[in-house]
Amino acid sequence: MNISKHEQRVLHALAQGGAIHFERLPNGKVHKVFCVTRDGHVLTDCTLPLFDRLKKRGFIKSKRGQPYRATRAGITAVRAQLDNR
């Protein structure tokens, strides 16, 4: 599957233990997202349109209101890198 460079970068961070935190509007829609790596750094590549693409493809998922994490499909879609655990 074709994945853009920014999607790859975010999925790598999530595969290594990062999470996408979000803020919702009162009507329940997500209006602000930011990706935090396992080391606590924030990725600026994670934007709302990128978040929507990853969610639509089923690469990320949130359980019971927790931050979004990579799914099995998201981990397998990302290309292998030396720094992945």
Describe what is shown at a glance.
By secondary structure, the chain is an alpha+beta fold. It has one domain (5-77). It has three helices and five strands, in the order H-E-E-E-H-E-E-H.
Please give a structural write-up:
The model has no long low-confidence stretch (mean pLDDT 90). The chain is globular, with a radius of gyration of 12 Å. With 85 residues, the chain is an alpha+beta fold. β2 (30-36) and β3 form a beta hairpin. It has a three-stranded antiparallel β-sheet with strand order 1-2-3. Helix content is 32%, strand content 22%. The chain has one domain. The longest helix has 11 residues, at 5-15.
Q: What portion of residues belong to β-strands?
A: 15-25%
The assigned structural class equals: alpha+beta
Radius of gyration: 12 Å
Distance between the termini: 22 Å
Tell me the series of helices and strands, N- to C-terminal.
HEEEHEEH
DSSP helical segment count: 3
Q: Would you tell me the overall average pLDDT?
A: 90
Shape: globular
List the domain count as a whole number. Answer: 1
What spatial order of strands do you see in the largest sheet? 1-2-3
Percent of residues in helices comes to 25-40%
Q: In this structure, how is the largest beta sheet organized?
A: 3 strands, antiparallel
Query: How many beta-strand runs?
Result: 5
Q: Which segments are poorly predicted (pLDDT under 50) over 5 or more consecutive residues?
A: none
Pfam families: YjhX_toxin
InterPro entries: YjhX_toxin
Family: Belongs to the UPF0386 family.
Protein name: UPF0386 protein So717_42930
